[in-house]
Amino acid sequence: REWADYIWTNRNSTDDFVSLMVQSLEVAKRSLMDTTAKLSVLLKANVVDAGAKGFVLFLEGIIEFIRTGNLRKLFSIKNESVDVRFSDADIDHDSFTFRFCTEALIRGNNIDKNKLRAIAQEYGDSTVIAGSKSMMRFHIHTDKPQELLAKLRDFGTLTYQKADDMQKQYEIAHHRKWPIALVTDSSCDLSPEILDQYQVHVVPMNLFFGDNHYLDKVTIHPEQFYRLLQLEDTHPTSAQPNDKTFENLFSHLSSHYDSVIALHLPQGLSGTFRNAVKSAQKISQEFDKKITVIDSKNLSGGLGLLVLKAAQSIAEGHTHAEVVEMITKTIPKTQLFASVKTLKYLVRGGRLSPAKGAIAKLLNLTPVITLDGEGQVVKMENAFSHDANMQKALQKARNMVDKAGIWNYIVMHAYSEKKAQWFSNQMEIISGKKPVAILDISPVLGVHVGPGTVAMAMITMV
Q1: What is the pTM of this model?
Q2: pLDDT for position 362
Q3: Pairing outcome for strands 408-413 and 438-440
Q4: Edge-to-edge strands of the sheet including 135-142?
Q5: In sequence order, what DSSP letters do the residues of 364-390 get, joined into one string?
Q6: Helix segments in 255-364, DSSP class H
Q7: Of these four, 2, 97, 107, 321, which has the most CB atoms within 10 Å of its CB?
Q8: DSSP helix/strand/coil, 358
Q9: What is the percent of the chain where pLDDT is above 70?
Q10: d(CA 386, CA 341)
Q11: 402 pLDDT more than 70
Q12: Nearest residue to 453 (alpha-carbon basis) of 409, 407, 420, 424
């Protein structure tokens, strides 16, 4: 109000709009400092009002953009104009009540805002609901966006979703562990614990059940996805993150890290890699930071193992160039085997022609699939049963371990935990190692392989 009053009062005193804005900023700063004394809780903690602080930063950004015309430059500005002091005894800035800042756009008929609000109260706080009975915008802070959005679907079609990881954002700004940021996409199968341990930044792929939009592994988890896959009449589709998504992430990371390394699924399977490369080139020039995007030629656990190896190398203190060189040499040593229970999902997802699918079904064949040197899906073996497929995959793995040794391996499954555990037990006998993890296959890959699939990825020593 005080800033707006100043603008209104002095609107006729000058013809120079920029000059008026600059002068008004000083008024806003003084008003900001005065907020400490206006609320007892602020006075006790000796801090300014957060919303007012945000507004002042907003004004500073506008003025800086008017002066320079370079929006990206704003990310690197270190603002020292306001002295904000925190009382650690009163406020714990390292704790989060809820982790994900979640938004959704719901379209439907006669949406009941009160019922929507009642459900939201069960899942988090900072709830904002606005709109009409035919379209409602929803905002909440929650730890379980996937469970909440599953319930919101009862109100209509979820045409837009967003879930920002506030904990990860805070860690980037205040507790980064290493100078190199590591990025991947959600086709990478690694446990959340490993991803958090190494501060790996994951870009979610998009999933669609009809007009309903989801973010892979964020607003829909594997168990929900495979349940819907069997219940829904409409086969889901997937879509890569757009270049704007990568621009925003690379900009944010470049303002806090010395460089960025990104590993993604093969460019022959998705446009994700191309969008990442395009965005990396743009942001690298604007921030003068090195951003290297690598086509992993792998997905699922194969991509997961490469990300883990890169993360460990970064943690050991290797340079950007050393990590990139190591990963480039490791890609050919990475192998993925997947025993598919049924071919219908490969046909629906466009990875297998209907004619070949019909012939295989007629002959009662199910394949073991893998990736070739360019990251393309190819058939390795055929068998007359899923169990026989798994035996063939194990024999392939045994031959590779005997010949080249093994650095590590990971086991994945699509709604088939018991068979995955059996496979893992056999691999432990073969390799003498326990797996990095036994995980659900990412939903964005489950679109194509379907429930019942069991897979294993490994990196050999040579």
Answers
A1: 0.80
A2: 39
A3: parallel
A4: 124-131, 135-142, 100-107, 157-165
A5: T-EEEEEE-TTS-EEEEEEESSHHHHH
A6: 272-287, 300-315, 320-330, 344-348, 354-362
A7: 107
A8: helix
A9: 86
A10: 5
A11: yes
A12: 420
